[in-house]
Design a protein that fits this description.
Layout: E1 2-6, E2 13-16, H1 21-28, E3 32-38, E4 41-46, E5 56-62, E6 65-70, E7 73-78, E8 83-84, H2 88-92, E9 95-96
Length: 98
Amino acid sequence: MKALYKADAHSEEVIEITPDMETIQEHVHGYFGQYMLDEKTVALVNEEGRLLQLPYTATLNIGGYVVPIVGPLLILGYDGEAYCDVDVERAKQYISTQ
């Protein structure tokens, strides 16, 4: 499945992943939480990123709210029931690195 991955503030790549818990945890470096960016796009992040003092990666703009993200960021598509290929251009509209 196609995903948008930011390991840090200076990188961004489209990758192929298997959307199982173990693979997602590998990419975000631990347990993950999710932000629904819209009905078809979900951001997965390390849920303990701030506690672990992970470095800043990006800012997500979600419905008028600004959410700073620390640690790796993985963005997947969502079809209402399961993760699916991300629409990369759609996902990028939510990301800022400022």
